[in-house]
Write a structure and sequence with these properties.
The protein is an alpha+beta fold. It has one domain: Alpha-Beta Complex (Fumarylacetoacetate hydrolase, domain 2), CATH 3.90.850. 28% of the residues lie in helices and 32% in strands. The strands form 2 sheets. Strands 1, 2, 3, 5, 6, 7, 8, 11 and 12 form a 9-stranded mixed beta sheet that branches. Strands 4-14-13-9-10 form a 5-stranded mixed beta sheet, with no helix packed on it. A hairpin with a 3-residue loop joins strand 13 and strand 14. Helix 1 packs across helix 2. The N and C termini lie far apart (41 Å).
Length: 263
């Protein structure tokens, strides 16, 4: 795709997000033909979004567990951006009107204490594990902002940050106190009823594999991760779609509890 087409596609995506209008398939000449083109558009989307979404503060990784790969129909990880305006503390009341169709996922989030820059690639799980400062129990907020996501195709979903709409974070747990992230047991509750459960090992065998994938993916594009950035490593459970009045609670053993409500 040429630069003009990339910008035009990004403008359509950002316009739909700002107006909370379900996104229809892009015009044929603006549709990314592969995921590499999708990431080019995503990069432009991030520049355009920063004006109203706040500073770019990190990444979410999607399709890192079998349950999510089966649900979305994409057998490999995909990345999207996280902005300051979408990051909330546990107990947040989220406005349903701010989303097209809001959903939540149960995640292990990490905040980096060290840079992971392209010159240091390729990254192993030992390398990325050493870069983590804190861990959090997290609710990823996702938004089904599409006329029909099942027909959009992975490249366009990537261009639009792969459903990303923010997160709710529990208290920070120092990396050394968090234990083996693969052994973390996670449970999602909606209005007190169990809605899903999984383990850290469901995320590519270990959440650090997801973090290493992201660092290597970014390095392949000449980008990197910076100290202070947040990474949502992928859902332990299938997405749970919510309606106003719902309350959600995620329990992640060793990382604590995180809660939010939809108003």
């Amino acid at each position: 795709m040429g630069a003009d087409e990339v910008l035009a596609a990004a403008q359509l995506i950002v316009g739909a997000r700002r107006e909370r209008t379900p996104l229809a398939p892009l015009p044929a000449h603006l549709q990314p033909k592969d995921e590499a083109a999708g990431y080019e558009i995503q990069h432009e989307v991030h520049w355009l979004l920063a004006e109203h979404a706040g500073d770019f503060v990190g990444y979410k990784i999607g399709c890192t567990s079998k349950v999510m790969q089966d649900y979305i129909g994409i057998p490999h990880p995909c990345a999207g951006g996280v902005f300051a305006g979408g990051v909330h503390a546990s107990g947040a009341a989220l406005r349903g009107a701010d989303f097209v169709r809001v959903g939540v996922e149960c995640e292990i989030a990490v905040r980096l204490a060290k840079d992971l820059l392209p010159l240091d690639a390729p990254f192993t799980i030992a390398h990325v594990g050493d870069a983590i400062g804190d861990c959090h129990a997290a609710i990823e907020i996702v938004d089904d902002r599409y006329v029909q996501w099942e027909t959009m195709g992975a490249p366009t979903l990537v261009a639009d940050d792969f459903f990303a709409a923010g997160c709710v974070l529990g208290p920070a747990v120092p990396r050394d106190a968090a234990g083996d992230l693969a052994a973390v047991q996670g449970r999602a509750f909606v209005n007190g009823a169990l809605a899903g459960e999984g383990t850290g090992a469901d995320v590519l065998g270990h959440p650090l594999h997801a973090l290493a994938w992201l660092a290597n993916h970014l390095a392949s594009r000449g980008d990197g991760l910076e100290a202070g950035q947040l990474v949502l490593t992928g859902s332990l459970v299938k997405t749970v779609w919510l309606k106003p009045g719902d309350r959600v609670r995620m329990e992640l053993d060793g990382l604590g509890v995180v809660e939010a409500g939809i108003v």
